[in-house]
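Data availability (excerpt). All sequences and predicted token strings are deposited with the supplementary files. A representative entry, CACP acetyltransferase, is shown inline so that the format can be inspected without opening the archive.
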Amino acid sequence: RAHGSLCATCEPLSLRQVLPGCTDLLRPPGPPCLALARALDDPDAQPELLLALLREAVEAQESRTQEVLSGQGAERHLQGLRQAALAAGEPLPEIFLDPAYAQVTHFRLCTLQVRSREGSWLLRGPLVPDGYGVGVGHLSPSPSHLSPSSSFGGLRVAVTAFTCCSHTQAAHLGAAIRGVFDRLGALLRGRSLT
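Structure token line:
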């Protein structure tokens, strides 16, 4: 929405249940997310279609998250292969020399999520000079935080970008994210995803 194109995106996840002290990278499920993004930008998209696409994207993301959390993500396995080749003095496997590999690992969007009862701000820096970091703090609902209009708790989103890149503007991406949240919020008010 902000730049009119998709980019390589990741979110670090802790593998503490499988390998304490290690992380892997979660990539969003591209096709369901792209379908939802396109539909959200279509002013004529019907609410039922938007809800179905949202449900599909959430389910695909949950499935991908569980896959990574169980140690079945691809990123660290590929990193291990690369490091093993380097340690053995072997030439790098061809996948690492392919320009497409460089493109899909140039993470222009890196996100991070944390739940908090305090509603703190979470900052995430970009991984590459022409990228963004997006931190999302979820205010965990508690009886004192809930009101009839905030039954989902609250979100605090912080967008960061380096000033050295003229193509990235944190405020521009933040406005695009706010537009998506506003549209989804309007869609979900009074509707059920179950």
